[in-house]
Amino acid sequence: MDMRKTADLFAPPMDPISDGRLTLEGFSVAARAFADKWKRHNQSFPPWSWVPLINRTLLVSNKQEEGYLSLEKIFILSSLEESPEEESLDVTPDFLDKEESIDHTILVQNVENEAHYYDFHIVYSASYGVPVLYFRGYCSDGKPLSLDVIKKDLPSSSVSLLLESKWTFITQEEHPYLNRPWFKLHPCGTEEWIKLLSQRSSSGGCQMPVELYLVSWFSVVGQVVGLRITLEMLN
Amino acid sequence: MDEVETPQTILQFAPFNSSVDEGFWHSFSSLKLDKLGIDDSPIPITGFYAPCSHPQVSNHLTLLSESLPSDDEQSSMESTSHGNRNKCPVPGILYNTNTVESFNKLDKQSLLKAEAKKIWEDIQSGKAVEDCSLLSRFLVISFADLKKWSFRYWFAFPALVLDPPASLVELKPASEYFSVEEAESVSAACNDWRDSNLTTDVPFFLVSVSSDSKATIRHLKDWESCQGDHQKLLFGFYDPCHLSSNPGWPLRNYLALIRSRWNLETVWFFCYRESRGFADLNLSLVGQALVTLSSAETAPNSVGWELNKGKRVPRSISLANSMDPTRLAVSACDLNLKLMRWRALPSLNLNVLSSVKCLLLGAGTLGCQVARTLMGWGIRNITFVDYGKVAMSNPVRQSLYTFEDCVGRGEFKAVAAVKSLKQIFPAMESTGVVMAIPMPGHPISSQEEESVLGDCKRLSDLIESHDAVFLLTDTRESRWLPSLLCANANKIAINAALGFDSYMVMRHGAGPTTSLSDDMQNLDMNKTKTQRLGCYFCNDVVAPQDSMTDRTLDQQCTVTRPGLAPIAGALAVELLVGVLQHPFGIYAKGDNSSSSNGGNIDDSPLGILPHQIRGSVSQFSQITLLGQASNSCTACSETVISEYRERGNSFILEAINHPTYLEDLTGLTELKKAANSFNLDWEDDDTDDDDDVAVDM
C-alpha cells in the first residue's frame, strides 16, 4: 500500500479531463483553444479575450496561468418599456436657471430604444472542476439589470430550457474575482452532462481532446444565453 | 476652399452620454469608507470612451472601478494600462458631497466654469496639443448614501461655446467624400493607428491625404510637418456618436482648439467611427464647418450639464441589492433553499415556508434547537414565549445563548433568543414574550386570578396570530392550555418532550369542531373527520396535574442526555415542514414508517408524514406511532372544547384550581372506576408501546 502511494507522487500529471471534470491547466488550454476557434469561425460576435489573474503570492510555480475568458459589451436593443424603478427624486428641475439659456448647438435627442449590454465571463471552478458561465446585464447608463429583465432578453428557446432542464438554472452569486454579485449558470450538473456528451462523441473509447472541452461545454451552455457556436468550431 | 453657396445651418452636436459601471460605485464606497471618511475635497478620476462601434447605438463616457485613483502599487485584477483600444482615458474630477443638501447646494455654474477654464487654458498654453485627451475633460458631482447604498450623480461635459456658433457647410459619410483609393488608404492608416499601443488611445489626430491618395495620420503636435504635403487635411477624432446627421460632442472643444491655435476659418473634420473593431468609413463622417475667428483672450462661455431623459435633473442609482450586506445574506439563504428545490425537491413550496409564523412556547434546549432548524428552512417569523432567565448552566445546552447572557442578573430567555436570531440572520422577524403559561393543578389565589386570566388571553391571542405552535416547555401540565387553545383555533401544534434518554415528537390532530372545506369532503375524507389524530393528552387517561416530581417524560431538561434535544428539536421542525408541504396540512393522515400503505408518498414531496415519533438513544432506535383522538381527552375532545367556548374564563379557572375537574368533565373519572374492575380493550390502540401510555391505576 505504501509503495503505491509513493508511486503516485511520481505519477504523470493528471489527465486534463477525467470523468467530465477539468483540471486548472486543462481549463487554460481549453480556454485558449476555444477563444481561437471562436475568433476564426464565429465572426458575427466579437472575440473572447483572456484575462490573466495576477498572482500576488509566488507560492504557486506559475507555469499554469490562472485567468478567465471575457466577452463584454454584447448588446441588444430592447423596446423602451416602463422604467418604474426611477424613484421620484423629489428635486425641482430648476437647477440650471440662468446659465444654459437654450444653446442651439446642442442636438435635442429623442429618447431612443434602450440598449442592454451584457458581459460574459467563463471562469474555472476548482470545487466543481468545471467551467462556469458568469454574466451580467446593464443599461447604457450603467444601471444593472435585474434577472426578470434579463430573462426577457433571453431567447425564448432558452427560457423553456431553463424551466425544463434540471441541469441549467441561473443563480446569483459573488463573482470569484470581482467581488460583486453576478448571475451564473449553476455548475452542479455540468459534470454529468459533459460525461454524456463525451461518451456520445467519442468512439472506440478515446477521450474528448481537452481542446474541445470548452467548445462542447459552450455548445450547451451558450444556448441558454443566446450565444451560439458554429459547427466548424467542433472540428 | 469651395464657394459657400449652400445656406449655412448651425452645427449641432450630439451630447455626450455617461455610463457608470456598478464597479465604480463599489470601489468608491470602499474608498469613502476606508480612506476618505468625511473628506469632501475633489477627487481626480479618469473616464473612458471609445469611438462608436455600432450604427444604432452611441458610445458613452464610462466610469469603471479603475477610474478612481488607487494608491496601492499592485495592479488590479482588470489591469488597464495605456494602450487599450476600448478605453481611451480622459481626465475628470469628482465632487462628492456628504449630504444631499450640500449636493443640491453645489454651485454648478461655477464648477462648470472652472473646468471649462482649465480646458481653455490648456488650449492657450498648448498643453492640449501635447495631450489631446485634455480637450474632453469632464466633471461629476455626486452624493453617495452609504447607508441606503444609493448614489445620486450628475455629469458635465464642459464645452466652450463659440460665439457666433460654428456653421455646417456639409456633412456626409466618409466613403462618399474620399475616392476609393483614398478611402482604402485612410482605413488602413486608421487601423494602424488603432492597432498600435502608443496611439490607440489618442482620440484626436490629423489626417493628411496626399495627391497620390496616400493617407497619413499624425499627432496634433505634428501640425507643422503637415503643412504643404497634402491635398486634403482633416481634423480627425474618435466620435462616440452614431448618428449620420450630427457629429459628437468632442468636436466642440476641438473646434475651439483649431480656431485658437491655428486660426483656421474653414475646418474639415473627420468623425472616426468603427464597426467590428475596424475603421468603418460608411459610418464615419466627413464634414466642413465654418468658424468665426475671434481675438478674445478670455475664456468663452461653457455649457455641458448632462440631461436626464431630457430633463435638467441628476441621475440616481440604487445598489442596495448588490451592496447591502443584509440583502446579500437574504439572497444567499434563499439561493440555498432554491438549490434544494431545483436539485432534489422540485415540488417544494418555498413560499409557504417563508410566510409561516411560528410560536415557540419555551426557549430552552428544545426551543433553541427548534429555532435554529426553522431558520435553516428559511422560516423567518419566530416568536418565543418563556418566563425564565438564562442561567449559568444554560449556554452549553441551549444553542442560542452565550456566556454574556447569564452574567449579572441574567437576560430573559425570550429576549436573549430574539437577539441571538438577529445576530445569526439580520432579516429575521422575531419577538420575545416574557410570560408564564397557566397550568392546571397549580391552584392560584383570587388575587392572582386577574393576571392569570390575562396571561390566558395573551396566550390565546398569540396562538390566533400564528400559524404553527411548538410546545416545548418542561412540564406536562404547561402543555395543556396551549393544546386546548390550538385545538380550539385549529392551529398546527407540534409537541416535543424529553425523558432521560428518550424523546417523543408528535403533531396534534385537527380541532374537533372544525369541518373540512367542501373540496376535501368531496375527496371522500369524511372518514378522516371522525378519525382525528390525537393530541398529547389523548393517550393519557390521567388529567394533567402537578407532575413535577415523578413523570418520566417531563422531567427537567437538565437531566436528559444532551444529544436528545437536538434530535427531538430537529424532528419537530421536519415534522412541521412535512405538514406545511402536505396538501391536507393539519388534516393529513398519519403514516407509519413500517406500513406500506401508510399514506400516499406522492402527497408530500418530503416522504411520509407520521403522527408520532418516539426514540431513544439508549437503543439508538426510533419508531413512528399513530394515535387517534380520544373522546375523553382533557385537552382536545369535543366536550372540553365546547365547554371552553361556552364558559371561557370560568372554565379555565376551574381547571386550574380543581384537580379532578377535567377528569370529571370528560368522564375519565368514570373510566377509571370501570378500569379498576375489568380489563379494557382500547379500540383505537395502534400504539405498540404501552409502556409510554401512562395509566395511573
| Rg value of chain B | 40 Å
SS-based structural class of chain B? Answer: alpha/beta
Structural class of chain A: alpha+beta
Q: Treating each run of at least 4 consecutive H or I residues as one helix, how many helices of chain A? A: 6
Which shape of chain B, going by the Cα principal axes?
elongated
Pick out the low-confidence regions of chain B.
73-80, 524-529, 547-557, 683-697
Strand content of chain B: 15-25%
The share of residues in extended strands of chain A comes to: 15-25%
Note the total helix count of chain B: 23
CATH architecture of the largest domain in chain B: 3-Layer(aba) Sandwich
Low-confidence residue ranges of chain A: 1-5, 84-89
Number of domains of chain B: 3
Number of strands of chain B: 25
CATH class of the largest domain in chain B: Alpha Beta
User: Rough shape of chain A?
Assistant: elongated
What's the CATH superfamily of the largest domain in chain B, by name? NAD(P)-binding Rossmann-like Domain
Mean pLDDT of chain A: 75
GO molecular function, one term (chain B): Atg8 activating enzyme activity
Function (chain B): E1-like activating enzyme involved in the 2 ubiquitin-like systems required for autophagy.
Protein name (chain B): Ubiquitin-like modifier-activating enzyme ATG7
Subcellular location (chain B): Cytoplasm; Preautophagosomal structure
